[in-house]
């Protein structure tokens, strides 16, 4: 969702740099023509790890999945 919110190349670059991504990679990915689904599975996991989402107060599905899976 974040990638779709960052519609312009300049916005993507600024936000990737703010997340601590190396400058070269940020330039490379900000100008990428790849779709959001492809980008989400590649480098955004490094820039937006689970800790980022937890800091926003959002809960992940992994703990619930592991808990439910272990009861089978």
Describe this entry's structure for a reader:
This protein is mostly helical. It has one domain (2-70). Helices cover 64% and strands 0% of the residues. It has seven helices and no strands. Helix 2 (9-18) packs antiparallel against helix 3 (23-30). It is elongated, with a radius of gyration of 15 Å. The termini are far apart. The mean pLDDT is 78.
List the helices and strands and how they pair.
Layout: H1 2-5, H2 9-18, H3 23-30, H4 36-40, H5 44-47, H6 50-55, H7 62-70
Topology as H/E string?
HHHHHHH
Uncertain residue segments: none
- Binned, the helix content reads 55-70%
Number of strands: 0
Mean pLDDT, rounded to whole units? Answer: 78
- Structural class, judged by helices and strands? mainly alpha
Strand content: under 5%
Please describe the structure with a list of short key phrases separated by commas or semicolons.
elongated; single chain; mainly alpha; 72 residues
Compact overview of the structure:
The chain has seven helices and no strands.
